[in-house]
């Protein structure tokens, strides 16, 4: 089932997510719904806060960018309770976008080499070193679990320059061709 993607300004995107236990109800269905939502939105990653749930769950299918970034070819993950260890302190700047911040793309500096530890969809522990654009996708999605958006990692000047676009998202004036949930209207 396609779920609405929560957009910039919604408070759920700013909360830190909780660990998922093996008894998590209907995990398999949630993961399937997250993949369906991600594919329908033409994304390569989706974190649970983006569908209104503050649970430490991420789905990634990096294969669509595999031609441009070979490390992404055939890479599909379900990450439960992921933890990142930075292995390379050198940062590379690349453009990023986000389903929760539609119509905005900004350059973000991130490290290129990480060690990722997580539980898969069967709750089996996994660990792998990731590099390049795949490491960037994982870092971006795991930021959501901490209540961080990629625009929090850009310079104050850049953030000021995109303020109008961000306000359009918050006020519901941004069109998306996928189901969305805007921030709740504030009472006067």
- The share of residues in helices is 10-25%
- Overall 3D geometry? globular
Q: Strands of the biggest beta sheet: in what spatial order?
A: 2-3-4-7-8
The amount of beta strand, in percent, is 25-35%
Radius of gyration equals 16 Å
Low-confidence stretches: none
Strand count: 9
- What's the tally of helices? 4
The whole-number mean of residue pLDDT values reads: 96
Distance between the termini: 35 Å
The largest β sheet comes out as: 5 strands, antiparallel
Structural class, please? alpha+beta
**What pattern of helices and strands is seen along the backbone?**
EHEEEEEEEHHHE
Oligomer: single chain
Keywords:
188 residues, alpha+beta, 5-stranded antiparallel β-sheet, two-stranded parallel sheet, 4 helices, 9 strands, 22% helix
Give your account of this protein's structure.
The protein has 188 residues and is α+β, with helices and mostly antiparallel strands. It has four helices and nine strands; from the N terminus they run E-H-E-E-E-E-E-E-E-H-H-H-E. It starts with a strand and ends in a 7-residue tail after the last strand. It is globular and about 45 Å long. The strands form three sheets. It has a five-stranded antiparallel sheet with strand order 2-3-4-7-8.
Give the helices and strands, then pairings:
Blueprint lengths: L4 E2 L20 H14 L4 E3 L9 E5 L14 E11 L4 E7 L7 E7 L1 E7 L5 E7 H14 L10 H6 L1 H8 L9 E2 L7
Parallel strand pairs: 1-9
Antiparallel strand pairs: 2-3, 3-4, 4-7, 5-6, 7-8
